[in-house]
Automatic annotation (TrEMBL):
The keyword Ligase does not apply. This is Peptidase A1. Keywords: Aspartyl protease, Disulfide bond, Hydrolase, Protease. PROSITE patterns: ASP_PROTEASE, PEPTIDASE_A1.
Amino acid sequence: MSNQLPALPLENDMNLDYYGDISIGTPKQLFRVVFDTGSSDLWVPSTRCHSKACQNHRRFNSTRSRSHREIGDKFHITYGTGAVDGVVSKDTLKLGGVEVTNQAFGETNFELDFFEKVEFDGIFGLAFEQISSINHSTPLTNMIKQNQLDEPVFSVWLNGKYTEGSGGELLFGAIDRNRYSGDISYFPVVREGYWEIKLDGAQIKNSRIPSVARTAAIDTGTSLIVMPTEDANSINAMIGGKPFQDGLYSIPCNGTRPTVNIVFDGQLFPISSEEYTVDLGDGTCVTGFAGNDMGFENMWIVGDVFLRVWYSIFNFENKQVGIAKALHSSGG
């Protein structure tokens, strides 16, 4: 292939999720999915699913697709906020100018109620196969195997202004030079599974938190920056965040606070107080730094609060993450 693929537009749901459209089947059935670099599987609701969450969303009807093949394997996926069960099928997948044949994906038969109120139908994982629950080649692997991409990369630009313009873009096979300024800093993936890179922590003025090395999973499917509670307590104490609920820290919606620098392998990536203040929409604001001790002892999950400020590039062949300053027109 030599023509650059079109960028796939993303919608921004209140700075909480970013989602875009894909189709599965012949003729195609449309779905809205979150593109998630923190998981590896693709799933959508099935017409066989009668959970409340499925009833509220578009459901895949396998009997209407000529290219559908049922594999029959069962799958179960647990996320930080919900879980799904179902069966594995194969079919034709289309998105952003890419067509993948015989793509394995999950058709859910059951979804926890968390998924009932979300704007998206399913999840499209973009992490490595090592953390797949479906145990077949992921969409990203198949795009590369089926020569759908010029380069084995994808890049993500997220907009923070959800009231105006594009919510974001996902570009397969290339890097969009118009979406960032300055140089790209590349960091090797330390352990395939997540897009996980070496993290030194955060620097606020002259203080570094934590004092021990951590790693960071760069995760488009997480709204905030989630870290061990010990780290979150320290950062929030320095920026005026007060323990609120569910690992969140409340903060006045206005006011100037110190910049927080996220430090990867000695390099500083600043986030201003305006950028890390998240408005929940009811007059409450929280900081972008949340505490959670579930299973990720030394790892931070670096989500959209960071990725709105920094353009991210995921190189599948070189196993590295690139970070550059995101460009937003008219201050967006």
